[in-house]
Amino acid sequence: MTEAGQPVRIGEVFRVWLPLAASWLVMAMELPAVSAIMTRLADPELHLAAYGGVVLPVALIVEAPVMMLLAASVALAKDRASYRLIYRFMMTLGAGLTVLHAALAFTPLFDLVVVPLLGPPPSVVEPARLGFRLLLPWTWAIAYRRFHQGLLIRFGRSHQVTIGTALRLVTVVGAAAVLGFALGAQGVVTAAAAIIIGVIVEALYSGLAALAVVRTQLRHAAVATPPLTIRSFLTFYFPLLLTSLLSLLVQPIGSAALARMPEALASLAVWPVVNGLLFMLRSVAFALNEVVVALLDRPGAYRTLRRFAWLLAGTLMLITLAVAFTPLSRVWFVTVSGLTPPLAALASVGFAWALLWPALDAFRNLLQGVAVHAKRTPVISSATIVFLVVSAALLLAGILTQSFPALPVAMVAFVTATAAQVAWLAVKVRGEAAALARR
Question: How buried is residue 166: exposed, middle or buried, by Cβ count under 10 Å (0-12/13-18/19+)?
């Protein structure tokens, strides 16, 4: 990376963004890979619905409070004292959320809370319960991984984040293939067990890779002024935690809505396949958030980052159009994902209605990065609330009318809500953005 006083060029943004985007993309490939294996095992519709409609959404909600540890580590782990404070917070939070996961998985809370909220078809409940139990170490492992990944990014070792994520993907695919094809495990068991093995492997690698940072760069880092305190950390982190929690409500809200609209079981079955492909396309935009936070202090950074966001959005739009309206759709949903022709047709229609979603995420992450840089993290929380209100209203309309298949309704709801979220962020950070553009 060039000196801090030098203007930011588009090539530098690309070089900083590329390893982070590759890491996100490799991670995003995990769900399509696992789904493709599940479609080739016994009772694919049942197990896809259990995993994508119940297990994964609930696990993501439990995990939500640790998701922003990466951003917090990038922004605040400036010296050894800050590192230790955030590390203690991460371990405490990971332990507490693991207890919550255990309570939901191994007590009647699963029937009292999860089943009524999501309303899955009765045949899905027991496979989902088993899969959720297998994911018990999930949250703590992700907390450990994201904290150390943030440390690696802050101290110029982003390539190790990519290596760790690639290692996770290889592990997940290999474990799923062995469990499903060689050992004959059920689809939901194959998916959950493979995912947890991969997450633990990546967490261990991230911790080992970060040891060099802790022993060298952190040891010699200048003491942060003012020093980070638990109060200042929580003031920074709580809005991000709330944002993460609200953002990940998309999965259970979507699952609950799909279960209550026409073609419920089919829509729940293709939901992880379509969402997996969309997440792959959206994921490369997620990396822009950390790039913006890392580079905005530099001269001319905002104008360059804004131009990069437009280029990224345009590229994502072209790719999404190609998949939605060419034979690539059949190649992905039938040949690669292994869906039956009726399920593939539903998936294609749902994907086409989500056309704008990946491009919108480029602008959302640009504006969120501006808000984090300005330490206006409550703005991000309020924008996420806008997203949830708009999406929930549109999903409720779909449930009440019962006029359209569930999946297209969900896609329209989430795209419209993301557009509203971007508009809200643009209004709220327009002052900061204008000031940055003048620099």
Answer: middle
**pLDDT for residue 250 is more than 80:** no
> CA 288 → CA 142, 275, 374, distances in Å?
20, 20, 16
- pTM, rounded to two decimals: 0.76
- d(CA 157, CA 50) in angstroms, rounded, equals 38
Q: What pLDDT was estimated at residue 1? A: 40
Name which of 142, 115, 122 is nearest 55 in CA terms: 115
User: 3-state secondary structure string, 113-166?
Assistant: HHHHHHCCCHHHHHHHHHHHHHCCCHHHHHHHHHHHHHHHHHCCCHHHHHHHHH
Q: Which two tokens stand for residue 49?
A: 């619905």
Q: What is the pLDDT of residue 119?
A: 83
End-to-end Cα spacing for the chain: 20
The backbone torsions φ and ψ at residue 356, rounded to the nearest 5 degrees and listed phi first, read -85, -10
| Alpha carbon separation from 187 to 17, 102, 123, 213, 393 (Å, rounded) | 35, 22, 14, 40, 33
Give me 373's structure tokens: 């840089």
| 8 A C-beta contact, residue 416 and residue 390 | yes
Q: What is the pLDDT of residues 33-82, one digit of tens each?
A: 888 899 899 988 899 889 988 898 899 889 989 988 988 888 888 888 99
- CA angle (89 as vertex; 86, 90 as ends), nearest 5: 85
Using DSSP, state whether 406 is helix, strand or coil.
Answer: helix
Distance CA 327, CA 330 (A): 5
Range scoring the smallest mean pLDDT among 1-5, 343-347, 378-382: 1-5
Q: Which residues have C-beta within 8 Å of that of residue 380, sequence separation ≥ 6?
A: 239, 240, 243, 368, 371, 372, 425
Q: Tell me the C-alpha to C-alpha distance, in Å, between residue 295 and each of 5, 6, 20, 22, 74.
A: 11, 11, 14, 19, 12
Half-sphere exposure of 188 (CA within 13 A, CB side): 27
Measured CA to CA, the distance from residue 396 to residue 129 in angstroms comes to 26
- State the number of CA atoms in the 13 A half-sphere of 31 facing the CB: 23
Q: What is the mean pLDDT of the chain?
A: 88
Cα 13 to Cα 19, 114, 230, 288: the distances in Å are: 11, 42, 32, 9
Tens digit of each residue's pLDDT (9 = 90 or more) over 385-399: 899 899 999 999 999
Mapped onto helix, strand or coil, the DSSP state of residue 244 is helix
For the chain, the 3-state helix, strand and coil shares in percent, each to the nearest 5, are 85, 0, 15
